[in-house]
Recover the amino acids of this structure.
C-alpha cells in the first residue's frame, strides 16, 4: 500500500514537471525551400534528423549556405494553461539562428528575426540574437491537446548555418518569469538576491543549500517563506569555508502555481598561487619577424615593481628600453638571433634566452591578447580599447605575455573617401594615435575587415580595395588583421564557382596586399572552417584560421567547439594555428550590456586548459577594466599559458573519449607531456588514467599546473577526482 502511494506521488510530480514546459530537441530537417514545408499537414517522414543546438556544418552539411527548414512536432497540452497563473501568453523560445529565420506555427507565421534576400532592403543576418516569440493562448492556430508543428525556415547567407545556442522550448509566460535570482559568491561567502519585477506582490518559499560537492555533503541549508513586494528585492548573505569549491543552490517556489526558479552557482574558487615577488620571465621564448619589418617585443615578467630589464647579445638594429622592457627596432638580415634576457629587482633576478627568428614566418607561437567583439560587439570605440589596454597593464596581464589589442567589427565609415581610402568612424578619431599609444606600451594593434563589400555587422569592407586598405592599416601601425568572409558570400555566389580555388581567392588577394606592406601584419582568416581551411590556410599565409562558427558563453557552445578540434591536430605548427574562436571569460555581452560569463568556474578552467592544449590563439573577449580577481588569476597562470606558447607548437591529441570524460595529450619541447583530464558530465567523476593507454611510460612524475604543485611519481596509473565540466591539467615527465 505504502509503495503504491509513493509511486503515485512520483508519477504526479513527473507529470506536472512535464506539463510546465515542452522541450523541442528532435526536429526533422531538410535543405532547400518550399512554402509547403510550413504546413501542419506536410509529410516530413523522409526528412533527416538533426540537433537544433549546433550549426548544420557540424552535422553533415559542410559549406551549405542558403535555405533549410526545421520542423518540430509536439502535442500542446491544455494543462500548460491550467498550471499557469497567467493564462494569456505562450512563449516559443527557439535559441539562435544563423542567420535569418521565419517561424511558423501550424502554417501561420509567428515571427521573423533578420531579413531575407527577398525582403525589402535585402538580406540582413541576425545570427547572434535569441529568438523568443509570444503568441496569445486564444490564437486560432494553436491546436490544444493535439499535434502541432513548429516550422522554422532558415536562410544562411554564409559561414555557419542553422539553429544553435540552446535547446528550443515552449512554455507559458507566467508569474515566475517576473522573478530573478542572482547569486554572487566568492572565496568564503556570497549574496543571493531575489527580485520581483512585477507590480504585484509575489509570495513563495526561498530555499538555499550550500554544498561541498566533492564530499557530496550539505554544509548548510535553509528554507524560508517570503513575500516579495512589487518591484522589490530581498538579499540573503551566506558564508562558507574559504579556499574550497562550494556549490550554492538557491530556489524560489512561487506560491500560486508551485512553479520554481532555481539557480546553481559554484563559487569563483581560485586555484593558482599569486606570482612571487622575485622576478620571473614569462611569455614566448621565440619571436618571428620579417627582414626590415619593425620588431616590437615586450619582455613579460612578474615580480615586485620596479623591475629593471637587460638584454645581452642584442644585434645592431634593436634597442631595449631598460625601464619598460620593450625591445624595438628592425633587423635586415635573415637568421636566428639568440638574446639573453635578464629581469631584476631588489629581491633577485631571473634570466632566460629569447630567440628572434628573422625570416618569412610570423606567429611562431599563438597570438595572445584581446579582441573587442565578445564584449563590446559593434559598440566598440577608442576609449573602450584604451581602457581594456590600460587594465591589461595595470592588472599585470601584460606580465604574462598578453599583447595584442584587436578592434573587431564596427570601426569605419559607411562611405570611403573620394579616392577610395577607408575612413575610420567618429568612434575612432585617430587610428594612428591609438596605434602609437599601444606601441609605446609594448602592446600590438589589430583590426578587422571582410573580403566582401560589407562586414558581418554591415560596415564597409575591403572588396576591390584590398591594397588600399592594407596600406591604410600599415600607416596606422596595424599588426594584426582579422579577415572575415561575411558578405563575400554574395561575390562568391555571383561568380558561381564552388571550387576550393574560389574559397582561397579572397584570402590570396589580401595576402598579396599585406605582403606588400613595410610591416608585418598577422593574417587571421575567419571563414568558420569552410572547405577545411586548416588544410590550405598556411598556403595563403594565414597565421591563424577559425575552425568553427561563433562561440558564445555557454557550456554547450564551449564544449561542442573545444572538444571537436581533434581533426585539425596535424595542421597546427609554428606560424600557423587552428583558431576555435575567442575566449568567453569575464564580462561579455556582444554590445553595450555586459554580463558575467555564464560559464561556471569549472567550465572556465576547462576553457583555458583546452585552448592552451590546442595551441589556440588566446584572445580575451571581455572588458578587462572590469575584470575580477578570479578571471585575472585564471589568465595569469604561466605554467598553463606555457603549454599554449610552447615552441614545439604541437596541438594536443584526444587519446580517450567516453560519455563522461576525455583525456587529451600535448607533446612539449622539453620532452614532457601535458595531459588534460576533462569531465564532460554533470557530476564529479573519479578518473583513472593508465599511462600506457595514452602513450606514456611506466612511472611518471606529475605536476598539477593549475595549482602549480608537484604531486609526486605515479606508477602505471594516475587517479584523480574531476569537478563537473571541470579539468585536471597535469604535466608529466619521467
Ligand atoms: C562574425 C565573426 C565574429 C565577429 C563578427 C563581427 O562573422 O565570426 O567573430 O567578428 O562576425 O560582425
Amino acid at each position: 500500500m505504502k509503495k503504491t502511494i509513493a509511486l503515485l506521488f512520483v508519477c504526479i510530480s513527473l507529470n506536472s514537471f512535464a506539463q510546465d514546459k515542452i522541450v523541442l530537441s528532435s526536429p526533422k530537417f531538410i535543405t532547400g525551400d518550399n512554402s509547403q514545408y510550413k504546413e501542419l499537414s506536410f509529410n516530413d517522414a523522409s526528412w533527416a534528423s538533426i540537433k537544433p543546438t549546433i550549426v548544420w556544418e557540424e552535422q553533415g552539411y559542410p559549406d551549405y549556405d542558403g535555405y533549410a527548414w526545421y520542423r518540430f512536432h509536439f502535442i500542446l497540452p491544455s494543462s500548460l494553461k491550467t498550471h499557469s497563473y497567467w493564462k494569456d501568453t505562450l512563449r516559443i523560445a527557439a535559441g539562435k539562428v544563423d542567420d535569418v529565420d521565419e517561424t511558423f506555427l501550424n502554417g501561420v507565421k509567428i515571427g521573423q528575426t533578420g531579413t531575407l534576400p527577398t525582403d525589402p532592403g535585402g538580406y540582413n543576418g541576425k545570427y547572434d540574437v535569441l529568438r523568443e516569440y509570444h503568441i496569445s493562448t486564444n490564437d486560432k492556430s494553436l491546436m490544444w491537446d493535439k499535434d502541432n508543428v513548429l516550422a522554422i525556415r532558415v536562410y544562411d547567407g554564409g559561414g555557419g548555418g542553422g539553429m544553435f545556442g540552446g535547446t528550443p522550448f515552449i512554455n507559458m509566460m507566467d508569474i515566475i518569469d517576473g522573478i530573478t535570482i542572482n547569486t554572487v559568491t566568492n572565496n568564503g561567502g556570497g549574496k543571493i538576491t531575489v527580485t520581483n519585477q512585477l507590480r504585484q506582490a509575489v509570495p513563495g518559499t526561498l530555499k538555499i543549500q550550500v554544498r561541498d560537492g566533492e564530499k557530496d555533503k550539505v554544509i548548510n541549508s535553509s528554507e524560508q517563506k517570503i513575500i516579495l513586494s512589487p518591484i522589490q528585492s530581498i538579499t540573503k548573505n551566506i558564508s562558507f569555508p574559504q579556499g574550497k569549491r562550494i556549490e550554492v543552490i538557491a530556489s524560489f517556489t512561487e506560491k500560486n502555481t508551485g512553479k520554481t526558479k532555481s539557480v546553481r552557482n559554484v563559487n569563483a574558487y581560485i586555484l593558482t598561487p599569486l606570482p612571487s615577488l622575485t622576478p620571473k620571465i614569462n611569455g614566448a621564448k621565440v619571436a618571428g619577424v620579417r627582414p626590415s619589418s619593425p620588431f616590437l617585443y615586450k619582455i613579460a615578467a612578474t615580480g615586485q615593481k620596479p623591475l629593471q630589464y637587460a638584454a645581452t647579445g642584442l644585434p645592431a638594429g634593436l634597442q631595449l628600453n631598460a625601464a619598460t622592457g620593450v625591445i624595438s627596432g628592425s633587423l635586415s638580415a635573415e637568421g636566428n638571433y639568440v638574446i639573453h634576457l635578464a629581469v631584476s629587482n631588489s629581491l633577485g633576478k631571473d634570466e632566460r634566452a629569447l630567440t628572434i627568428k628573422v625570416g618569412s614566418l610570423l606567429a611562431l607561437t599563438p597570438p595572445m591578447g584581446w579582441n573587442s567583439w565578445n564584449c563590446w560587439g559593434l559598440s566598440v570605440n577608442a576609449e573602450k580599447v584604451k581602457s581594456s589596454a590600460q587594465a591589461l597593464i595595470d592588472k599585470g596581464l601584460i606580465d604574462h605575455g598578453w599583447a595584442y589589442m584587436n578592434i573587431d567589427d564596427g570601426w569605419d565609415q559607411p562611405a570611403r573617401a573620394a579616392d577610395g581610402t577607408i575612413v575610420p568612424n567618429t568612434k575612432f578619431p585617430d587610428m594612428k594615435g591609438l596605434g602609437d599609444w599601444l606601441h609605446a606600451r609594448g602592446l600590438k594593434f589589430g583590426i578587422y575587415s571582410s573580403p566582401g563589400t560589407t562586414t558581418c555587422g554591415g560596415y564597409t569592407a575591403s572588396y576591390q580595395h584590398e591594397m588600399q586598405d592594407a596600406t591604410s592599416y600599415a600607416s596606422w601601425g596595424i599588426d594584426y588583421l582579422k579577415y572575415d568572409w561575411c558578405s563575400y558570400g554574395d561575390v562568391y555566389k555571383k561568380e558561381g564557382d564552388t571550387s576550393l580555388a574560389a574559397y582561397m581567392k579572397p584570402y590570396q588577394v589580401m595576402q598579396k596586399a599585406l605582403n606588400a606592406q613595410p610591416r608585418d601584419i598577422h593574417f587571421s582568416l575567419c571563414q568558420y572552417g569552410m572547405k577545411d581551411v586548416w588544410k590550405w590556410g598556411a598556403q595563403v599565409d594565414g597565421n591563424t584560421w577559425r575552425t568553427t562558427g561563433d562561440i558564445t558563453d555557454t557550456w554547450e557552445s564551449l564544449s561542442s567547439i573545444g572538444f571537436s578540434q581533434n581533426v585539425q591536430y596535424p595542421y597546427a605548427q609554428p606560424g600557423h594555428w587552428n583558431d576555435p574562436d575567442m575566449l568567453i571569460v569575464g564580462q561579455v555581452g556582444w554590445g553595450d550590456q555586459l554580463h558575467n560569463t555564464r560559464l561556471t568556474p569549472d567550465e572556465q578552467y576547462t576553457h583555458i586548459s583546452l585552448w592552451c592544449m590546442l595551441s589556440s590563439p588566446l584572445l580575451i573577449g571581455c572588458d578587462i577594466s572590469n575584470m575580477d580577481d578570479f578571471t585575472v588569476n585564471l589568465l595569469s597562470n604561466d605554467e598553463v599559458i606555457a603549454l599554449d606558447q610552447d615552441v614545439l607548437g604541437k596541438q594536443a591529441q584526444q587519446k580517450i573519449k567516453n560519455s563522461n570524460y576525455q583525456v587529451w595529450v600535448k607533446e612539449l619541447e622539453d620532452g614532457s607531456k601535458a595531459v588534460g583530464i576533462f569531465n564532460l558530465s554533470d557530476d564529479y567523476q573519479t578518473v583513472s588514467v593508465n599511462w600506457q593507454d595514452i602513450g606514456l611510460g611506466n612511472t611518471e612524475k606529475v605536476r598539477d599546473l593549475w595549482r602549480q604543485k608537484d604531486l609526486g611519481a605515479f606508477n602505471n596509473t594516475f587517479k584523480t577526482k574531476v569537478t563537473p565540466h571541470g579539468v585536471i591539467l597535469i604535466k608529466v615527465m619521467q
In short: Residues 373, 408-409, 455-457, 484, 486, 526, 550 surround beta-D-galactopyranose (CB under 6 Å). The chain has a mean pLDDT of 95. Residues 2-20 form the longest helix (19 residues).
